[in-house]
Amino acid sequence: MAALAALFIMCSSVNAFAQDAATATTKAVDMAKVHKTTAFYVLLFLLLCLFIAIIGKALKVYELTRETQDKPEGINWNTINAVIFVLFLIVGLYGVYWEYSVHGKMILPEAASEHGKKIDEMFNVTLWVTTLVFILTHIVLFIFTYVYRYNKNRRAYYYPHNNTIERIWTIVPAIVLTYLVLMGFFTWRSIFYKAEDPKNRAISIEVTSSQFLWDIRYPGPDAVVGKRNYKLTTAINGLGIDFNDKNSIDDLLADEIVLPVNKPVRFILSSKDVIHSFYMPHFRVQLNTVPGMTSYFEFTPTITTEEMRTKTNDPKFNYILLCSKICGTNHFNMQKNVRVVSEGEYKEWLAAQHPYLTDDLRKAFNLPVSVEAAPAVKDTTATTAAKVELDVKNQLALKK
Amino acid sequence: MSTISLHDTHHDDHGHGHHHETFLTKYVFSQDHKMIAKQFLITGIIMAVIAMLLSILFRIQLAWPDKSFPLLETFLGKWAEGGRIKPDFFLALVTIHGTIMVFFVLTAGLSGTFSNLLIPLQVGARDMASPFMNMLSYWFFFVACVIMMGSFFIQTGPASAGWTVYPPLSAVPKAMPGSGLGMTLWLISMILFVASSLMGGINYVSTILNMRTKGMSLWKMPLTIWAFFLTAILGILSFPVLVAGVVLLIFDRSFGTSFYLSDIVFGTEILSNEGGSPILWQHLFWFLGHPEVYIVIMPAMGLSSEIIAVNSRKPIFGYHAMVYSLIGITVLSLIVWGHHMFVTGMNPFLGGVFMITTLIIAVPSAVKTFNWLATLWRGNIRFTPGMLFAIGMVSFFISGGVTGIWLGNASLDINLHDTYFVVAHFHLVMGAAAIFGMLAGVYHWFPKMFGRMMDVKLAYLHFWVTFICAYLVFFPLHFIGLDGVPRRYYAFTEFEFMDKWITVNILVTWSAIIAALAQIAFLFNFFYSIFKGKKATQNPWQANTLEWTTPVERLHGNWPGEIPTVYRWPYDYSKPGAEEDFIGQNVPFSQTMSSNLPHDFEGNEEGERIQREWEAVNKPVQE
Ligand code: HEM
Ligand SMILES: [Cu+2]
Ligand SMILES: [Cu+2]
Questions:
Q1: How far is CA B274 from CA A279, B174, B259, B265, in A?
Q2: Ligand 1 pocket mutation, candidates B50, B54, B55, B106, criterion most atoms within 8 A of CB
Q3: Where are the domains of chain B?
Q4: What is the Å distance from ligand 1's center to B106 Cα?
Q5: Does the pLDDT at position A22 exceed 50?
Q6: Collapsing DSSP states into helix, strand and coil, what is residue B139?
């Protein structure tokens, strides 16, 4: 009764407030409409409150009459709640099934990298194990709440402990987890401890993050990305590349990441300003880029963009690099296109890239700036493709 | 035992009326643990409502990124020019939402309320070890809240680098507007907050260790007390590390040191800091940050254990295992922090180590879950509001817990880290589970706090709407994360592959709005019942623990006469042979001859002999 009254009071006062707000702002023409819609929703909600209050009131009246007539309690709320739990279980199980089959289909396609396949395998095992546990424990939980709902003629079973059972359900999860840990541990090691294969050297690519873009640097023919020193940063040398390091001279500027399929690539990651995160979900690759610290991620892409387009049945599919560590205003839009192509296409693309070293930079670093110098560099890049696989030493010798 | 008699005299001093309570000493600068508990609770509820409104604001942005809501501009002014929340403000909202929820609501609001309320009442003490420090603890917390909220009223806005405030983003004011004055306020607020937590924690530990009533051995303490005890220890061990981190960050920000900074260039401006490492902050932060999530969940576990036992009318299953798993969690939680740093570029060897420790901690968590389920088995379950929320807590703990196994696996974490999958995971396992544990506690101990009952039917409504909507909010987020969508994204509009999630975002936002509206049922019920609720009886849930032996009316010193002595563990529910289905901890075995079990005498031969003799006389062979 009192609850109802209070709700009424609450309703009417808020109501008045809403009306006040609506009348007070007739001056701003478009705001009036806004306030009207707001008032409408507020009223709608208050109506709902009223409705609930009436139901509550009716329930109370009903129970009071039962009481005065000395009849047993009319509504057994224990049973009602128990039944809702069972309904929740049934609808919930269906909901989980629906989620898995609808939203579950909208997640990332299969991994497009070698180590990614291992991760996906483990993903599937873990998914099965945890889904099973999730479903079974919930069935037990809600069935128990239903079956053992209150009954005043029954007494609960005094059962303080059972060491055997407790041991079992300590040991079984421990075993399952040991299995998952070992699997994870070995996969983890295989991802981050890679033995170098001299015949199949990884292509180094440097990615430097800054608010809110990615700078990509490919090594030139020497296959080595030159040094950087943040203290050398100037307007024309945004990355602070140290061109006194010979390895820097032929480095190439790229505005997208292009990777040859089935070749190992080694990303050299660092950051200019704040922490960002180098995240290429399709390859199961993520590593933070941290200022003052260089980190490396090596992997082998296995599916070209074209192939992935057929696989996903999406002609517009593209691999993508995103930033997944909060880094400021435009964190949500810090992207780079990524393409995986055949070896041939890769070489062709690489040949078309320009060196970082411009004439201005040559002047700044006291390097010779001859009219021929520029085309000469061009030439070297043009032949890059052919030479990429040559031994580094060889190339250095060639240059000399 | 000397402490107890000491405190009896202390009580007598006060009990005979030399103690004048003015409005100020009773309600504001109160040193009574029950009043302080209420202060923590009400402040916590207010902060929770604020944090919830903030989440609704940014959920609106996520669901309708292109739509203009002129009303937002009315309220938020320049933060929402043209009726659209700005990216910087979005990040501020997310950051302050997270900070408030984790620290102010689920640490102070939860531990502060229930440790304060229940520790003296359940261990049988007149008050906390140091009531004055207890009062300070609340006021530091209050000031911390005020400063944090104050940061909404400054030119550059509140801290916005995420609740983890990683430098350099948080250290360099030009990195984002929120890293200006807002960040300074955040850091100051945090220091005050930690001071508050430490004063509270030291009090809880010393009260539990020194002021238990006669007979209350450690192994007779209710699980709530065990949980608060271990939580407080964990806080004492880990919070100071956060302070260390925060102080260094303040130095870096204001005094030009380079603890966290090195090799930094903004555009072409080269900062002079050299030699620091941003990773250092992450180690210091997560050394607290991970234990923090257990600081949040363990009290919820303790409350739920107690409520589930009371309302199943059954002893908690595996009391010892429950305690040992809490101890296990406490110890292990100190050595798993690195799982938040698998992909920072930290040495991969460390990644392997932290993966192992992390998955070990899943074992005690699993044991706890199974023991709750076993407690329900063959119980006689009363669905009081507290019980509903405790069951909800178990459900969320399972749902969020299983995905911890994914994230703890370093290899899987490569692709899951910092995506919406993480958001889904921690909201279920620590957000929803802990909030439900807290609500369970509020409904269950409301009669103890205010001497009145809350309305049951409104509570049912509150529970069901919240329970269902919480799942609708957080379950779909897993899939968004599995699609590789990073968290803390202002809008899903810049990437084509995210387009398909817009409808899901709308569903999530609507569910969040409905869940938020359902809290009105709670708020109304709570504040209305304080004044107008049905008068409570002394032991409304027929529970065993000592707090229900105190009178309904608030009393400084808790018990009018002597503090009751404890004879038995707190879980003698439905004991065979007993008249009623509960036997209070203060009931001696001599009064329950018909239900005593050999085990009860703990090897006391005299007791066993008396019991045997009694049985020989009174128990003609049954069945
Ligand atoms: C009212 C219900 C809630 C809703 C709708 C909600 C929603 C969200 C969402 C969507 C995010 C992620 C935003 C993003 O990463 O872009 C978030 C962040 C967060 N929430 Fe909640 N949340 C709710 C309640 C809670 C609770 C109870 C907790 C307590 C643990 C909590 C703690 C956090 C934390 C720690 C973050 C991370 C903040 C950050 O990224 O710095 N939230 N919330
Ligand atoms: Cu970012
Ligand atoms: Cu953690």
A1: 27, 18, 9, 11
A2: B55
A3: 28-535, 557-622
A4: 13
A5: no
A6: helix
Q: A117: CA distance to ligand 2 center in Å?
A: 26
Best residue in A103, A126, A211, A236 for a mutation probing chain B (most B CBs within 10 Å): A103
- Dist CA B25 CA A22 (whole Å): 44
Q: Work out the burial of residue A77: count CB atoms within 10 Å of its CB; fewer than 13 is exposed, 13-18 middle, 19 or more buried.
A: middle
**pLDDT above 90 (res A325):** yes
Two tokens at A61?
């009246």
C-alpha to C-alpha distance for B392 and B436, rounded to whole angstroms? 7
> Is there a cis peptide before residue B526, judged by omega within 30 degrees of 0?
no
Average pLDDT over residues A357-385: 63
And the tokens for B396? 């969320």
Residues with CB under 5 A from ligand 3 (ion): B 290
Contacts of residue B520 in chain A, CB cutoff 8 Å?
49
Residue B433: nearest ligand to its CA? 1
Give how far A314 is from chain B: nearest CA, Å. Answer: 11
Which residues in chain B have Cβ-Cβ distances shorter than 8 Å to A88? 467-468
Residue A316 to residue B504, Cβ atoms within 8 A: no
Distance, in Å, from the CA atom of B297 to the CA atom of B228, rounded to the nearest integer, reads 10
End-to-end CA distance of chain A: 97
Q: Give the pLDDT confidence of B484-523 residue by residue, as tens digits.
A: 999 999 999 999 999 999 999 999 999 999 999 999 999 9
- Between the alpha carbon of residue A47 and those of residues A39, B53, B316, B516, the distances in Å are 12, 22, 44, 17
- Select from B28, B176, B191 the least CA-distant residue to B94: B176
B539 to chain A, closest Cα gap in Å: 18
Residue of A nearest to B463 (CA): A81
| Interface contact flag, A177 B359, Cβ < 8 Å | yes
Q: What is the pLDDT of residue B13?
A: 40
Angle, alpha carbons A218-A223-A225 (nearest 5°): 55
CB pairs < 8 Å spanning A and B: 349
Residue A345 has pLDDT above 60, yes or no: yes
Rounded to the nearest 10 degrees, the angle between the axes of helix B502-532 and helix B33-63 is 150
- What one-character DSSP code corresponds to residue B486? B
Alpha-carbon distance of B521 to B466, in angstroms, equals: 10
Q: Name the residue in chain A with its Cα closest to that of B517.
A: A45
With bands split at pLDDT 50, 70 and 90, how would you rate the model's confidence at B620?
A: low
Q: What is the pLDDT of residues B446-474, one digit of tens each?
A: 999 999 999 999 999 999 999 999 999 99
Amino acid type, A304: T
Per residue in B93-151, pLDDT tens?
Answer: 999 999 999 999 999 999 999 999 999 999 999 999 999 999 999 999 999 999 999 99
Residue B186 Cβ < 6 Å to ligand 1: no
* Cβ count within 10 A of residue B284: 21
Multiple choice CATH, B28-535, 1.10.10.10, 1.20.210.10, 3.90.1150.10, 2.40.50.140: 1.20.210.10
Separation between Cα atoms, residue A217 and residue A267, nearest integer Å: 10
Indicate if ligand 1 lies below 6 Å from the C-beta of B52: yes
